[in-house]
Write a structure and sequence with these properties.
The protein is mainly alpha-helical. 49% of the residues lie in helices and 0% in strands. It contains four helices and no strands.
Length: 129
């Protein structure tokens, strides 16, 4: 469940008693100096009524979900590439140039070769088994 304002969570609330607006920070700048919450709230309401506030775009829940899925997919892809680069660097540090033999270090043939090397096999003819 997503966040709801406190006024919507109460049982005794009146319909339409409050509306939450999310405004861009650049459009609601006040005077410099000490913060005065009540005066700042009045200034923001006046700007909202006058149409001077630029409200932020708040996507609906389905779009937020798709953005989360897309962001997670991108993170997983980035982690896979990072792991592949680390594996290649580790193998080259051990003077094993596996990337010249296979196109994908995380593919099936590369895994068989790595498993054979881990078992101590040095004969390339046995790597294909």
């Amino acid at each position: 469940m997503y966040w709801k304002p406190i006024c919507e969570q109460r049982d005794d609330r009146q319909p339409g008693s409050a509306t939450l607006h999310l405004a861009l920070a650049l459009s609601n700048r006040g005077r410099r100096g000490r913060k005065r919450d009540f005066a700042d709230a009045e200034r923001l309401v006046k700007r909202l009524v006058a149409g001077e506030l630029t409200l932020s775009f708040v996507p609906d829940s389905e779009q937020r979900l798709w953005r989360t899925v897309t962001r997670r997919k991108y993170q997983l892809t980035r982690d896979r590439v990072r792991l592949q680069n680390q594996l290649e660097a580790l193998l080259e540090e051990a003077h094993i140039k596996l990337s010249s033999l296979v196109s994908d270090l995380l593919g099936a043939s590369a895994r068989r070769i790595l498993q054979a090397l881990a078992k101590g096999e040095t004969d390339p003819a046995l790597w294909r088994l």
